[in-house]
Design goal:
- With 680 residues, the chain is an alpha/beta fold.
- It has 23 helices and 14 strands.
- It has a four-stranded mixed beta sheet, with helices on one face. A four-stranded antiparallel beta sheet has the order 6-7-5-8. Strands 13-12-9-14 form a four-stranded parallel beta sheet.
- A hairpin with a 2-residue loop joins strand 3 and strand 4.
């Protein structure tokens, strides 16, 4: 269905084409010239008060339309001037009134307009449009990256990101089009000048040859008509050129253009005082004192304006201070907002004032950078995102003391000497070095605090020397590793699921929530993290869960299935390649006793082993572990798959770091050597 707006635009362009071909009467020409001048004024004031350039996104197309229409009117007026010598009232009035009824004056005014349009407005607008287009296109990649960064951090939504991307694309298209559209304006001015010269020469020839006028009379008559035609065309063209210059030079602002412009120009009181003083000087000292009333009057006006600006600024300042005081008082009168106190940080690192330089970037501290690296390291190692680690100073602590909290509860602490280094004997250094005895906080190994001057000698002797920031970072890393399972929330799991769904939507849709709930998946992942197994290969984990969730929803059993499918990762973690690993095995009798003590319930299974048997097993485990540790090797116990999870639960309260692996979690190319057996 044809809209009125579509019809209006179509008629506008159709008229432009018709005027090129069909002669029109002078009366209709007068109407079109008046309409053309009105359109130019509408465009000028629309551009003047628009807030953003994209609000006039069709301005390049508008330039083309108005240029074609204006040239078609030039052709029509030229036809009337040459054929009848009567192009209408508008052209005559512009020639007589604007040109002063004098050919020389009219010609000079016309030439001045042409120079202003060519040299000043068109040239400047063209250059500004070109530079703006270039910079807009060059800035596009950076703007796109900024949007992606805001989207990834959660600062904006997908909808807002889409809107910002569309705005950037529109801006680039607009300024690119404006760079070319300015050529229309320049070409229009050139065409107007050429048409004027043709009218003058052609009119003079027509007057002499066909109307019997003398050369002087012909030049006078047709010269005034030509000048009138040129002025009535060039004034709208000048307005359009001015509109183009305003649009490409103004920036986006939420305030009105006029308010902003006047505020920037007359908003500084001291500037007005200076200008007023200069005007008084000109009106009193210089020969311009004959017109002193003019300069003194302007100076007084500027002084009054400046005084009013100062008064308004003072009132605004008082109002702002009063409002701020009222807000502060209202905040004091409000009851304490206890809701904010309910928020518990997942991980906190509090330290005494003596450690502040390590966390202060301005003092050269790099503890914040190390915290970022910790989160990156854990993500690569275990496949989960560590929550934000809160760092804060605590004046209640000793100057060199720090504590680590998990969910608001202190789990460990440490103490460092700010200007010292910690030296640890790896076990083969025989020569001792003097220092302050201490213990390494992460693994509670004996160590010595040494000074900067002793560092080089300690390293040459074979000591492992660590600086204070590394001590804190290592301690924090180990605490996070040991508590990463309880830090994994349902929201974290949902984020992992969403990330996997982008590349593997089928497996996610099959598993959650059809087979397992989000909480059950969380329990499986927590079980893996508790024993230091990475969940980075989330696809394999989900596929295993989807395979076995139909037969069992016991999260412990499902964890064992997942571990078996992750045997390549487990083997590479605990069994070095091309080496024989010493392990401890379980006596088949012990395995049988454990399995016979398993009780099944609706909530799952649990182990109900005789306390005496448990004590005997734990004693045997302690003995065998001692043998391996005496050889400098990690304690690893190998069991049958069905026994592994029960034996791990049995021993985890006694031997927290004990590694328990089933035979199904070991790659076929791994070489194992049993050096002991757990008996009862």
């Amino acid at each position: 269905m044809l809209k009125k707006s579509d019809l209006g635009v179509g008629i506008y362009l159709l008229c432009a084409v018709i005027f090129f071909i069909v002669p029109i009467p002078s009366g209709l020409l007068d109407v079109m010239l008046a309409f053309n001048l009105s359109v130019a004024l509408i465009i000028l004031f629309s551009v003047l008060f628009v807030k953003e350039v994209l609000d006039m996104s069709y301005f390049p197309t508008l330039l083309l339309f108005t240029t074609i229409f204006r040239i078609s009117l030039n052709v029509s007026s030229t036809r009337l001037i040459l054929s009848t010598g009567n192009p209408g009232v508008v052209v005559n009035v512009f020639g007589q009134f604007v040109g002063g009824g004098n050919l020389v004056i009219g010609a000079i005014v016309f030439i001045v307009l042409i120079i202003i349009q060519f040299v000043v407005i068109n040239k400047g607008s063209e250059r500004v449009a070109e530079v703006t287009a270039r910079f807009t296109l060059d800035a596009m990649p950076g703007k796109q990256m900024a949007i992606d960064a805001d989207l990834n951090t959660g600062a904006i939504t997908d909808k807002e990101a889409k809107e910002r991307r569309e705005k950037i694309q529109k801006e680039s298209s607009f300024f690119g089009a404006m760079d070319g559209a300015t050529k229309y304006v320049k070409g229009d001015a050139t065409a107007g000048l050429i048409i004027t010269m043709i009218n003058l020469v052609g009119g003079t020839v027509m007057g002499v040859m066909f109307q019997g006028l003398a050369a002087g009379e012909a030049i006078q008559k047709f010269g005034l008509l030509t000048i009138g035609d040129g002025l009535v065309s060039q004034i709208p063209s000048l307005l359009i050129s001015l509109s183009t210059g305003i649009l490409v030079t103004k920036g986006s602002n939420e305030r009105d253009f006029s308010t902003e412009l006047l505020g920037q120009l007359f908003g500084t009181a001291k500037v007005l005082y200076i200008v007023g003083a200069v005007l008084i000087f000109l009106g009193v000292v210089t020969p311009l004192r004959n017109e002193w009333w003019l300069f003194i009057g302007l100076a007084v006006a500027f002084f009054v304006t400046a005084k009013r600006i100062e008064k308004n600024a003072g009132i605004e300042s008082i109002e702002e201070e009063t409002a701020q005081a009222e807000n502060d008082a209202e905040e004091i009168r409000k009851p304490e907002n206890v809701v904010s106190l309910l928020q518990v940080d997942p991980i906190e690192l509090e330290f005494g004032y003596g450690i502040i330089p390590l966390a202060d970037v301005n003092q050269g501290g790099d503890l914040l950078d190390r915290v970022v690296m910790i989160r990156r390291q854990i993500a690569l190692e275990l496949g989960t995102v560590v929550p934000i680690i809160r760092l804060r100073d605590n004046i209640q602590l000793n100057p060199n003391q720090y504590i680590i909290k998990i969910k608001g509860i202190q789990v460990t602490e440490g103490e460092i000497l700010f200007d010292h280094y910690m030296a640890m004997n790896p076990g083969y250094v025989e020569e001792e070095i003097t220092g302050i005895p201490t213990f390494e906080p992460s693994f509670h190994l004996p160590a010595i605090w040494i000074t900067e001057s002793q560092r080089e000698r300690a390293e040459s002797l074979g000591y492992t020397v660590v600086d204070p920031p590394s001590i804190i970072a290592t301690h924090l890393t180990e605490v996070i590793r040991s508590h990463i399972a309880e830090l994994l929330t349902r929201q974290d799991v949902q984020n992992l699921v969403n990330n996997l769904k982008e590349s593997n939507p089928v497996i996610v849709d099959e598993l959650i929530p059809k087979l397992l709930g989000l909480g059950e998946v969380q329990k499986v992942l927590q079980n893996l993290l508790t024993e230091g197994i990475s969940i980075r290969d989330l696809l394999t984990i989900f596929e295993t869960l989807a395979d076995h969730a139909q037969t069992s929803r016991d999260t412990d059993v499902l964890t064992e299935y997942v571990r078996q499918d992750l045997k390549r990762a487990i083997s590479s973690k605990y069994f070095p390649a091309n080496e024989t690993t010493s392990v401890i095995t379980l006596d088949p009798t012990v395995e049988q006793e454990i399995m016979s003590s398993v009780k099944q319930t609706e909530q799952g299974s649990y182990l109900a082993l005789d306390p005496d048997k448990t004590k005997a097993i734990m004693k045997s485990v302690e003995t065998e572990i001692g043998k391996l540790e005496s050889l400098g090797k990690s304690a690893i116990i190998i069991t049958s798959p069905i026994v592994r999870m029960y034996f791990k639960k049995l021993t985890e309260d006694y031997f927290k770091d004990l590694i328990v692996i089933s035979y199904n979690e070991v790659e076929s190319n791994v070489e194992l050597q049993s050096v002991g057996m757990v008996t009862a």
